[in-house]
Design brief:
By secondary structure, the protein is an all-beta fold. It is 0% helix and 51% strand. Strands 2-10-9-4-5-6 form a six-stranded mixed sheet, with no helix packed on it. A four-stranded antiparallel sheet has the order 1-3-8-7, with no helix packed on it.
Length: 114
């Protein structure tokens, strides 16, 4: 069974930084593109960033230049470094494969105060 455990969220002031981590199990991690998604209050869950098996990355326009996604295949982990945070980044953040598996973790809450 796929398990995805996100961590690293918290409350931060605008302009601050956070680093999210995700531990994945139950999948052959190294062959799966991985991604971070987020769901802001009252909105649908959106793709934020993706990292492919060869290491290439892709970002939503709203986070380009501020967020960096990375992966560690030896640890079955994916990370999201978030800098220059704004209140618009407030959301629950989830990791998953790309495209998504049928499983979701509990997510990690990121709250950015103005």
């Amino acid at each position: 069974q796929v398990q995805l455990v996100e961590s690293g969220g918290g409350l931060v002031q605008a302009g601050g930084s956070l680093r999210l981590s995700c531990a994945a199990s139950g999948i052959i991690f190294s062959i799966n593109p991985m991604a971070w998604y987020r769901r802001a209050p009252g909105k649908q869950r959106d793709l934020v960033a993706a990292v492919f098996t060869g290491g290439s990355t892709n970002y939503a326009d709203s986070v380009k230049g501020r967020f960096t996604i990375s992966r560690d295949n030896a640890k079955n982990a994916v990370y999201l470094q978030m800098n220059s945070l704004t209140p618009e980044d407030t959301a629950v953040y989830y990791c998953n494969t790309l495209p998504t598996s049928g499983y979701w973790g509990q997510g990690t809450q990121v709250t950015v105060s103005s």
